Amino acid sequence: MSDYLNDVESFAALRAAQGGTWDNINPEYAARMKRQNRFRTGLDIARYTAGIMRRDMAEYDADSSQYTQSLGCWHGFIGQQKLLAIKKHHGTTSKRYLYLSGWMIAALRSEFGPLPDQSMHEKTSVPALIEELYTFLRQADARELGHLYHELDAAREAHDQLKEKAALKAIDNYETHVVPIIADIDAGFGNEEATYLLAKKMIEAGACAIQVENQVSDAKQCGHQDGKVTVPHEDFLAKINAIRYAFLELGVDDGIIVARTDSLGAGLTQKIPVSRDAGDLAHMYNAFLETELVESADDVREGDVVIKQDGKLVRPVRLPNGLYRFRDGTGEQRCILDCITSLQHGADLLWIETEKPHVGQIGAMVDEIRKAVPNAKLVYNNSPSFNWTLNFRQQVYDAWESEGKDVSGYVRANLMSADYDDSELATLADQWIQSFQADAAREAGIFHHLITLPTYHTAALSTDNLAKGYFGAEGMLAYVQGVQRKEIRQGIACVKHQDMAGSNMGDDHKEYFAGEAALKAGGKDNTMNQFG
């Protein structure tokens, strides 16, 4: 028997046991509402989605073509529409996630107004957005299932057993819109206890994967800005431990920790860790410091810090703000050490913040990491901060030049110019961009590709296009032609915005609760009927 019909029978038996007091309760309606609310808590979601990610990680280990993807979403509605679009166009949400970007929370969700990505926004806004995203995804499930229930009712009314069986099968095999969220906790918003407390809130809201970075919490910068300051490994590992304890305390035993290193672009550290033995983590961290040899007390100024390093006394170079500087050219080595150390101490995935999208650069670092941790794999930011067009045109130019191909028709510094858009070089560069994710998954160990803030840009672009026409000569045609007609032609569900906002679900519930006395909104005078 259908699982759905089993639920109906169970509620019928429960109603019968109440001695007639529940006779106004329809078992089938109860079964429908139960299925429309599959996930009762955020922890239910976190446990379910952690299992999805673990399976996806294992499948990627076996076959690198099985990489995963996500887009950053700054509002529940945006996340909902993304998942609806994925199911409509691709038939399944498999291997598609959501990304929660700290950058977009800072820029769009803070009560202070738009802020830079420097951990100045309210940390409670992070779990709040996770909860909001899952609220909208669960509502998408309820709405879609509601449509299937109406199809079932119509089939029964028409006595069409084939359509009835098809509707029951669709209900039983319904795929939820609830997918994993990789959530950005920045640098933890404080010490390790603060990181633990915030991680708990994020997990309780539904996060199965938390991304934490090795910057100093109170000096945090966007990964694509200057002035980044990293912390010693011991400090970072304490925060990884804090997040793992939060997962374990809440019963999400297979929760995922993404360890992000900003060392590639960070040239500063806030403190010098204490080394107890040669070769320990503190010793390796300090070995990257820019230092000056101390031969006598005369080489030391008032207030200078001196350390013994490899048998010599050295003075680390300290800036006027008290920060210490790393030696130039050590970023990749520090990045590799960060990654190995994080994986060996409890992290599950890596995030290397790079300055450009280059498969060779990323792959070279991953090759070194995999010498120590063979199954190391990355979450990678396909960032809007990169000029993808210029970067890849220059990569093609450099490849051609190294092959001895004539590049005299191109000026490398000006390759962004529209004059090159129809050129052979630009065409090949676009092909490289198109295959970047598959190439990087295969050659650079990237398990998950994401774009941190795409919907920030799409919202601005679509609003610009509408405002240009609507407030100009096109007037209302700008909306009709540029938005509504496209929604209708492309089958965008929210063209029926009343239904998307829950109007039909509300009508169903009113009928469940009040029967024929229900005052419903979806009658013949509802203008939503104009859309068929």
UniProtKB/TrEMBL annotation:
Superkingdom is: Bacteria
Q: Which residues bind substrate?
A: 101-103, 223-224, 260, 381-385, 452
Read off the InterPro entries from this record: ICL/PEPM, Isocitrate_lyase, Pyrv/PenolPyrv_kinase-like_dom, Pyrv_kinase-like_dom_sf
This entry's comment on the bound cofactor is: Can also use Mn(2+) ion.
Enzymatic reactions = D-threo-isocitrate = glyoxylate + succinate
Molecular function (GO) terms for this protein are:
isocitrate lyase activity; metal ion binding
- Keyword annotations of the record: Lyase, Magnesium, Metal-binding
Chain sites annotated for binding Mg(2+): 184
Residues of the active site are: 222 (proton acceptor)
GO annotation (BP), single: carboxylic acid metabolic process
Q: Which cofactor does it need?
A: Mg(2+)
Q: Under which name does UniProt file this protein? A: Isocitrate lyase
Annotated organism of origin:
Kineobactrum salinum
